[in-house]
Amino acid sequence: MDTQLKKGVLDMCVLGILKKEDAYGYIIYQRINGLLGISESTIYPILRRFVKARYLQSYLKPSNTGPARKYFSITPEGERHYKALIIQWKKFEETINQQVVRSD
To answer: How much is the pTM?
Structure first.
């Protein structure tokens, strides 16, 4: 997939994953990488930006296999932002389908 397209949907993917359940950075990376093929270093700046914007909060959770892990959970503000991104995505998809894809 094109790099610019990936950048356009990464925020939505991160929030969508965390809307389902809390997770730590590497798990978020693995789920998105399975879909889009990204590098691990792509996720952490997004997580930091979202914590700063108060879309996410973080907390430490003990691990059975090593040190405690930093988990992320979506906040009410993050859920509102996610819903707004979904609306934008659907409008974008509809416009492209009407104007480009189905313009036979």
So the answer is: 0.86
* pLDDT tens, residue order, the chain (104 aa): 566 777 779 999 999 999 999 999 999 999 999 888 899 999 999 999 999 999 999 999 998 888 999 999 999 999 999 999 999 999 988 988 888 876 55
Domain 3-99 maps to which CATH number in 3.30.365.10, 1.10.287.110, 3.30.420.10, 1.10.10.10? 1.10.10.10
Helix pair 25-36, 43-52: axis angle to 10 deg:
120
Give the HSE-up count for residue 97: Cα atoms under 13 Å, Cβ half-sphere. Answer: 6
